[in-house]
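A common beginner's mistake is to predict each chain separately and then try to dock the pieces by hand. The better habit, illustrated here, is to supply every component at once so that their relative placement is modeled jointly.
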Amino acid sequence: MDGKQTGKIPPMGWNSYDYYDTTVDEKAIRANAEYMAANLKEYGWEYIVVDIQWYAKNPGSRREEHQYIPFAEVEMDEYSRLLPDADRFPSAAGGKGFGPLADYLHSLGLKFGIHIMRGIPRIAAHRHDAILECLVTADEVAIANSICYWNPDMYGVKNTPEGQMYYDSLFRLYAEWGVDYIKCDDICRYDQPSAKAEIAMISKAIRRCGRDMVLSLSPGPAKPEEAWYYEKHANMWRITDDFWDDWRLLKDMFKRCEVWQEHVSPGNYPDCDMLPLGRLGKGFGHERNTRFTYEEQKTMMTLWCLFGSPLMLGAEMTLLDEDTLALLTNREILAMLHTDNVPRQIYREEDRAAWKAVNIRTEDCYVALFHLGDEEELQVEVELDELGVPEESNATELWSGETCEVRQTLEAKLPAHGCAVYLIKNNTGKS
Amino acid sequence: MDGKQTGKIPPMGWNSYDYYDTTVDEKAIRANAEYMAANLKEYGWEYIVVDIQWYAKNPGSRREEHQYIPFAEVEMDEYSRLLPDADRFPSAAGGKGFGPLADYLHSLGLKFGIHIMRGIPRIAAHRHDAILECLVTADEVAIANSICYWNPDMYGVKNTPEGQMYYDSLFRLYAEWGVDYIKCDDICRYDQPSAKAEIAMISKAIRRCGRDMVLSLSPGPAKPEEAWYYEKHANMWRITDDFWDDWRLLKDMFKRCEVWQEHVSPGNYPDCDMLPLGRLGKGFGHERNTRFTYEEQKTMMTLWCLFGSPLMLGAEMTLLDEDTLALLTNREILAMLHTDNVPRQIYREEDRAAWKAVNIRTEDCYVALFHLGDEEELQVEVELDELGVPEESNATELWSGETCEVRQTLEAKLPAHGCAVYLIKNNTGKS
Amino acid sequence: MDGKQTGKIPPMGWNSYDYYDTTVDEKAIRANAEYMAANLKEYGWEYIVVDIQWYAKNPGSRREEHQYIPFAEVEMDEYSRLLPDADRFPSAAGGKGFGPLADYLHSLGLKFGIHIMRGIPRIAAHRHDAILECLVTADEVAIANSICYWNPDMYGVKNTPEGQMYYDSLFRLYAEWGVDYIKCDDICRYDQPSAKAEIAMISKAIRRCGRDMVLSLSPGPAKPEEAWYYEKHANMWRITDDFWDDWRLLKDMFKRCEVWQEHVSPGNYPDCDMLPLGRLGKGFGHERNTRFTYEEQKTMMTLWCLFGSPLMLGAEMTLLDEDTLALLTNREILAMLHTDNVPRQIYREEDRAAWKAVNIRTEDCYVALFHLGDEEELQVEVELDELGVPEESNATELWSGETCEVRQTLEAKLPAHGCAVYLIKNNTGKS
Amino acid sequence: MDGKQTGKIPPMGWNSYDYYDTTVDEKAIRANAEYMAANLKEYGWEYIVVDIQWYAKNPGSRREEHQYIPFAEVEMDEYSRLLPDADRFPSAAGGKGFGPLADYLHSLGLKFGIHIMRGIPRIAAHRHDAILECLVTADEVAIANSICYWNPDMYGVKNTPEGQMYYDSLFRLYAEWGVDYIKCDDICRYDQPSAKAEIAMISKAIRRCGRDMVLSLSPGPAKPEEAWYYEKHANMWRITDDFWDDWRLLKDMFKRCEVWQEHVSPGNYPDCDMLPLGRLGKGFGHERNTRFTYEEQKTMMTLWCLFGSPLMLGAEMTLLDEDTLALLTNREILAMLHTDNVPRQIYREEDRAAWKAVNIRTEDCYVALFHLGDEEELQVEVELDELGVPEESNATELWSGETCEVRQTLEAKLPAHGCAVYLIKNNTGKS
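With all components supplied together, the output reads:
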């Protein structure tokens, strides 16, 4: 992707979905942003992302029946472009869109992201609405059989000059607002034939819009044989369907990371999805603390950071407890999250796994051992010659801070679903 | 299916699709009906079926791009029910629908059929239009992710009391018009989850409407494991996707008939689709005579009749030539088309096949031999003991009228893609 | 299938597998046969079937590792035909095969069946052993890539005159022994390309062997689109993989019977597999009483009998308890098991189902109501107009013997996994 | 893969299959080796690979029926290890195996490769043959249901210590012989469950055998989601099923290279399969010159070299014509074949494609334009800004040697199935 983001640290931020579902509003966004600026920014957390249906009227009002109310009213401009619902986002009133909110976030030193659905609103196609600076109307760029299965709002857009004009008009608007990050949904696993072309159209629209934006693709699972295509056009792509606080999903992520381990590079981040930590689920009608045990939380943070996944927090930040905050601000763990640390799985069995990440400059080596089974305690080990480090090495376990001398085999007794992660420094003088 | 049609002869008629595509009009319907009444009715042909998009404005006007123009205008009443386009069907003006046309056909001694798409018009759902005698509006019965892949007009209907009310309102209207036959499309091969339930809803609506109607399901291929379900709810179901004048499709039909041979019974007719004979393709922009050779045409007629498929002629009847007319009016061949004649494949190989149909009352036996290969001539044979007839029998070949004595083996030299079909009368006195 | 069995009652008998796995011996067969003759024969039970690996040496001796020991020694004659292991079947010594045992069973008024694997022994192919009266050796009829996934003994046989000669030689031997029933395994679900042709070869070999034999095909699930083929060549075909005493499998059988309901006819019996009742599992190292509750056992017997499945008992009969014996000798329930009673599912939902079977001669109607859910009690009902019986009828519940008057709706409160089955006699004088 | 080959140029050599099928002998191997040493070695060609069934007696003697004669005699030592058929490889007589032949090739400055089938000979398992230094016999390490579909010789090997001992014994023998390259077949696309584990077992056996060997996996197509696994254990893996001289297969390779473009790195070579050039097909009974046109041959060489595939010539070298020799000795084209040149597809459409490869040290840029359609001539182009080179650059077309100045767009008129490939040198002084 020419002109695409090529940072060496994957995006770190917060996303409204896990707590608010479709119901987030401006007040909540501001409160979370303020919390992040005060407490997390210094550790690298910087994106605030407004997730799905910010354009919908009364979203969530029929939640028992519908996550997304079909055929419902949406806020839209005269050019078939969705706008924030001004009832929920008062600063958007008068056609100002997300501009004022983005400005406020920027003033806090943060970056602003929004979720969009691939496509053009169905209602615009049925009403033959206009497209900015385009001679044809929405019905001429919409694809009548390209829909999203789980959301009723949009039709896919044709890969034609007029279709590109529609996407260009969207991103021109987002650039005007000051958007830094786009999470585009219904586009990553190619349920619909047009989705693949739409990735390239959106990528081109971003290059043309005159503003840097991270492009994040959802939902997953992405297709391994299309890795080259995601890398060409996007920055992040989900390697999983929605991830929640369920051990089976976390255990399953080890298999997904195995498949994608060779595709992490500057600007390219296979995405393990949001971190369902802390307080979750209010908009879904199931407000709760995360169901992950603390061992599972450490396992998740260790895998995401060593593998190099983007980190997007799902918790309502204003309700964060101390333990969760500690997890999110552990500088030793977060330090793994850099593309100089090249992640590789050493082995994966039903009940255990080991990963390493060797720093290409310093040759420091991170090693993580995981107990994936349900036994109360399990010894997990790895031979040092698999790591390429000397047979006698010193290792520091990063969660505990303890140091040990290792001969030939690094081993740890781990609790169920738990992990240990070690840093073995290279002593040969490279840096 | 309680109350469903249980005739012993499958429906025989004419369908507008193969010649007119979406563009048929009242004048054409009347002309074809008059031809049928004058020339074919006495042989059993009686249905006249108006195929797809009789409700569309200017259908076919953008034929290079679209068979079905998306998001285009349709004729619809205030209760979300599609009506005939009065520009094409003048007698429908003033809200009279197909009533006057049905009356005319009935006056000719014919029966009247229409094509419908499963579902409710998309535009009605987006506009929140009313449903007859129902408290909720169209958006409440439409399923936003149940669409047809190849036609943009409808959303599937929910399996709820309100959804049933919509279908009931449709069939009440069709009964008022005098419809005798419904070809319901996008419902047979279950591309969409709601389609299976919609078959039962439509079946119930027909029982409730107070008028006998044949229910024909499209497109195929139907699913063999659902045979019991089609038989419970419908009269005909397509065992193939659209059938055209292409030898590969005709050869393939032998495999399909093999699978479905046990599911032909009074009122239940696995459907081999229209007969693409005579003059075809005008509405598709490829007007032509059928591409089938005369041998292939006889092979098709023989298979359809012996197997017991409905016969729906695709030709523009006013342009019928003598040879085709002779094919359609051969009383010996048409006589096979009765459920007393139980069809069974004897064998099928790459280049040849044999079928029999034994009459359960008379024990007369039909035998058909087919050359399915491309060799100029091939001998095809069947042992008499496979037929359950005496080792010395007399047989009459029905297309030629020739009679022969057979000892042990019935054999024929057949031209490429050709057939012979014999009647071996039972001489034991049963009748 | 010309010359195939066309009885109106599906085969009823006993099979050694559920209790003995591969380890059954002559003593056990005789003991069970004697029990059947004394206690069950008068109710219609008559087949005694010796299941898998009667030809194997020391079967079961490495049961932890292998159900079937690969590359192990087998008893075989000079013509590549497997023989009973004389260590386990002493009467087979001296090349007498199963003849003496069959004679004994016949002397008890019973019938004798054996299990075979499709194909020719692998070792015969590798050793180039002879085939009876055939010029070529075993390697020339074996198909090197047609194997069974779960049993290591055989290669598939080529569909050639020499392959047919091998099967003919097998069935000539079985006819000499006096075999009445063949359960042929690895042949029904077509895991391997040659299996379909082998069905026809075996069918032909049976016709040629001069002795009537029931042909039973395993394992399932059979393919609905091949129903016509099974009916042409066999008498029974499994519609399920191995069935055991697990409620999920029993519940699942309702779906399978739904699919196959139209394929029960004289001589043709879709097969729900053995009845895992009474004492089970010794050869598997898990001897136990059936895990089915008594309600589940009644549900199973009701479904199998109403649907018309063959009944093959899995219990060790010499250990039968009174309750199980009562289940197996209930004449009212067993009376449903006749092809004059045509089975049809009325409906099936997640938690309940209803079936009927109408007698084509008497028009008596059986109705079964099933509670398929886990709720302690559930009311299940059916409208009389679905049954075609008068709106006021008398019904007798067959398990309890209780009689009731029914108006419009037949309903019953049923315990979890339980059933009720009624007989509604036709009073119009038909018989 | 620890200790695995990490050369920066993929293996280049010759393979006996395309010309000899199963029938190659020592004389042919020596003649081809001598030709290579004299004519091709200086251009980098160095491997001579003996392909399938060098252990078989009379291979090809029943070629009409069988490519691989089932249950036929093979040359094998007392430890279940296949040996070269001494009738065809006389120097192998007396148990010397391929040692003398390997020595001769080494004396010519060449390297020696052999093809093996995954697994242990079936006959060894059925005979319970010994395994070197192992307490158990062949039947204990063979997997009775792990076979190759298209070759009847072997059973898969269990992933147990004893199974590993068998593979270790094989590679110890190959090391003694002096084998440099192993093409292991029936192992890459995982038709059978054991194949994945066998890759790791073979990889381990190579590390243990004390001799460097290239490990090449066949047949394809390999699985993109297993890329990491092939890279860990092997050097080459086929991304296609057998490739032959058919334009459809060559066109299809563009899609395959697209998928695998990111997986070429030192020691890791996705493999486009042999080059079917020159004289081919004698062993198959269809001796011929390649069916590829000269344009297609250049297209193939260009794609294989730019992409970085191994180059394995299929032609009988002693019959090489001048034109083919020129193709194989074009130093400018062969220079692309180095992992410093990182290949990337620029675009691929139905009728055209463009690729680049940028040298990571010099930043020189190769660009290839391909006409994949059937039109006599087509203009194909690429924008210079896609290449990252200056808007005004000089380019040399490598097949013609012609130089041109390029402004913004590099374009060429190409014949059907033809290509042009340019080198654009970096002028900024890097080297």
